Amino acid sequence: MYFETADGTRLAYEDHGQGAPILFLASWVLNADMWEYQIPFFVENGYRCIALDRRGHGRSDRPRDGYDLDTSADDIAALLEHLDLRDVTLVGHSMGGAEAARYLARHGEERIARVALVSATVPFLKLTDDNPGGLPEFALQAVLKQWREDRPHWFTRQKQIWFATHLGNQVSESQIELTLQQCLSASPWATAQYFQSGYHTDHRPGLAKISVPALVVHGAADASAPVALTGRRTAELVPGAVYKEYPTGGHGLYITHKHQLNDDLLEFIKS
């Protein structure tokens, strides 16, 4: 299914099941397909599951611009209005979590019942005077330079780290290769633009104003979004947030820890 945003971009989404709505927001360079181990579980438990392909990803259009978190937040708002969804649970992984946070900051909580930030790249990644634990600009530029030389090779090098297989997490080679191909399917232009927007966006003011129930889930072994910079700090910023940290979880815990994650999400939604 498709809908059009304010600038005429055609975005794809999936809509399964009936009941209270859950909107799944995918990781950077991934799309709605990443939630294949979550959506059937929640449909079977009586929920309506919607999953969005952001612009430049999956089946959605690849427009000239709009590859930033403010536009992503506005695209989410357009989808919620298109479907007239209310009492929504937002579940965002990685940059999807950043998009959820940005949506709440820009559009408020009128349509939102609760939010779950899973391995989210918030609150602020950039090294600044008031964010001494952040990552320096040269690190961002180094990654961009590697992509201009050989983007597929960079992602191939990351595939084992993504799942923290060195800690004994069991992931088949087929699953790893599928995830790699999903990552490489995103528009190269969108890949770089979103990466830069995620690095430069400061979510701290917005997170501190969240008043709906919030769940923060993060892996202690997350190499893509180090837990000390992201998950733990986010849990401290969001008032009353429930925090769960998976000791062996990497960034891809939606696969390696799918049963635990599904159970934790379900418990949170029911509570």
TrEMBL record:
Q: Is the Hydrolase keyword given for this protein? A: yes
The protein's superkingdom reads Bacteria
| One MF annotation (Gene Ontology) recorded for this entry | arylesterase activity
Q: Specify the enzyme's EC class, one word.
A: hydrolase
List the Pfam families hit by this protein, alphabetically.
Answer: Abhydrolase_1
**What Enzyme Commission number(s) does the record list for this chain?**
3.1.1.2
Please list the residue ranges annotated as the AB hydrolase-1 domain. Answer: 21-257
Give the matching InterPro entries: AB_hydrolase_1, AB_hydrolase_fold, AB_hydrolase_sf
Q: What is this protein called?
A: Arylesterase
Species in which this protein is naturally found: Actinomadura macrotermitis
